Recover the amino acids of this structure.
């Protein structure tokens, strides 16, 4: 295992648009064989999942007013707020993809580091969360390509929860399904749980502690490290201009179709935005915080032109590989959701 240093000219990069795109470069282009790790801190930004509708997930007016970036990551998962009180870590694995979808495996080193600080209530829980005393401090996500994947998450260390609560507009169905009434109720910072002698730690101090613990060294300088080169940064810059810094990528398009249905399944939230014309589905778009290595548009195409009734929708969905292009969800449940009877 080795560290991938994402600083530039010896200085840390805080631009979330750049940082969130690094995994795509590392698993698609650079492809260093083995198990790498990146760890960084962002300026204020809202990071949304690959399949999410930005217009439904966040308070865009608040973001514009407070100069908060909107950034779409390359993996699934939900919307999260980042500021310099957060630490983001990602495992970059090339060659052996057996650990893909194993969130427990990527969360355990973080939990072990917290246990050694005396925070015994820390745990990996649910589908892709880490929590302390039942409160979430980290959400994790993954993306896979060829024989490589990136897997990591956000660690809420000293986040400004007031800003997070204003800027995030969580899916009501998801919150209700978990018995939660507000964003604030489900999130905690790690810092209040630190022993008193560590209460003066900054996010950078905590990041360095995690790295040293994960690699079993006393100093960050002792970690085997690959430093991004000028050539690496030239490619990263080009990808920013062509894709990752564009409005099309980060905001996407809000279809604004007449019907919107959403439900939180075990695999995450699945939402359909669609129109019905002459009693048939004429346009449809899938959104959500689910994880898939497939292509949800395959499902959308299969539903266009289908009569708007339960049996016809169920039959159309039965002909599509739902497991690989969405995630394992019963076809009957998806049909019931589209018919608004779930």
């Amino acid at each position: 295992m080795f560290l991938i240093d994402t600083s530039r000219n010896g200085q840390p990069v805080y631009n979330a648009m750049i940082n969130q795109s690094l995994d795509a470069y590392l698993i698609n282009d650079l492809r260093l064989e083995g198990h790498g790790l990146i760890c960084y801190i962002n300026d204020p930004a809202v990071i949304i999942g690959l399949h999410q509708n930005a217009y439904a997930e966040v308070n865009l007016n608040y973001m514009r007013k407070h100069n908060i970036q909107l950034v779409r990551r390359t993996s699934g998962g939900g919307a999260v707020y980042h500021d310099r009180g957060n630490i983001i870590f990602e495992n970059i694995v090339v060659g052996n993809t057996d650990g893909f979808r194993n969130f427990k495996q990527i969360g355990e080193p973080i939990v072990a580091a917290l246990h050694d600080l005396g925070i015994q209530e820390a745990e990996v829980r649910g589908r892709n969360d880490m929590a302390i005393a039942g409160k979430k401090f980290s959400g994790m996500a993954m993306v896979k390509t060829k024989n490589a994947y990136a897997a990591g998450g956000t660690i809420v260390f000293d986040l400004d929860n007031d800003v997070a609560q204003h800027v995030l507009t969580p899916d009501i169905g998801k919150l209700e399904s978990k018995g939660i009434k507000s964003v604030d109720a489900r999130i905690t910072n790690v810092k209040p749980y630190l022993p008193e002698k560590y209460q003066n730690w900054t996010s950078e101090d905590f990041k360095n502690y995690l790295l040293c613990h994960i690699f079993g060294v006393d100093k960050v300088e002792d970690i085997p490290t690959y430093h991004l080169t000028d050539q690496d940064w030239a490619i990263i810059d080009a990808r920013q201009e062509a894709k990752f810094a564009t409005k099309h990528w980060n905001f996407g398009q809000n279809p604004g179709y007449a019907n919107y249905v959403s439900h939180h399944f075990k695999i995450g939230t699945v939402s359909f935005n669609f129109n019905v014309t002459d009693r048939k589905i004429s346009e449809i778009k899938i959104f959500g915080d689910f994880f898939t290595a497939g292509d949800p548009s395959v499902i959308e195409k299969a539903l266009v032109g289908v009569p708007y009734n339960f049996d016809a929708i169920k039959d159309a969905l039965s002909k599509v590989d739902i497991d690989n292009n969405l995630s394992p969800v019963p076809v009957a449940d998806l049909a019931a959701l589209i018919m608004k009877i779930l």
The longest strand covers residues 135-145.
